[in-house]
């Protein structure tokens, strides 16, 4: 798949981008480069390759993700914050109706 200059100009108009001819030409080259890369990746035979949850897992076994424990670290201060709100009810902020 590749684009032509008219495609780029149409996309630019839809995205409300103001591209001159030189910028449109550069954008065309970049987009077609991306499409070429996608085609190269599609051509690789990946049958029989198990999906990885992390790229390092291809080289090391038992890779643990470096995520912190999901623990509450801040105190619940909802009541403090809602004291200064104009209106609250049941822990929710009340706002004026803006759409009829």
Automatic annotation (TrEMBL):
Listed GO biological process terms: glutaminyl-tRNAGln biosynthesis via transamidation; regulation of translational fidelity; translation
Gene3D superfamilies, per the entry: Glu-tRNAGln amidotransferase C subunit, N-terminal domain
Keyword list, A-Z: ATP-binding, Ligase, Nucleotide-binding, Protein biosynthesis, Transferase
Superkingdom as given in the UniProt entry: Bacteria
Keyword Cell cycle: no
A Pfam family recorded for this sequence: GatC
Catalytic activity entry: L-glutamyl-tRNA(Gln) + L-glutamine + ATP + H2O = L-glutaminyl-tRNA(Gln) + L-glutamate + ADP + phosphate + H(+); L-aspartyl-tRNA(Asn) + L-glutamine + ATP + H2O = L-asparaginyl-tRNA(Asn) + L-glutamate + ADP + phosphate + 2 H(+)
Listed SUPFAM superfamilies: Glu-tRNAGln amidotransferase C subunit (SSF141000)
EC identifiers of the protein: 6.3.5.-
Gene Ontology terms for molecular function: asparaginyl-tRNA synthase (glutamine-hydrolyzing) activity; ATP binding; glutaminyl-tRNA synthase (glutamine-hydrolyzing) activity; transferase activity
HAMAP family linked: GatC
Role noted for this protein: Allows the formation of correctly charged Asn-tRNA(Asn) or Gln-tRNA(Gln) through the transamidation of misacylated Asp-tRNA(Asn) or Glu-tRNA(Gln) in organisms which lack either or both of asparaginyl-tRNA or glutaminyl-tRNA synthetases. The reaction takes place in the presence of glutamine and ATP through an activated phospho-Asp-tRNA(Asn) or phospho-Glu-tRNA(Gln).
Subunit structure, as described in the record: Heterotrimer of A, B and C subunits.
UniProt similarity note: Belongs to the GatC family.
Name under which the protein is recorded: Aspartyl/glutamyl-tRNA(Asn/Gln) amidotransferase subunit C
Protein species of origin: Noviherbaspirillum saxi
Name of the encoding gene: gatC
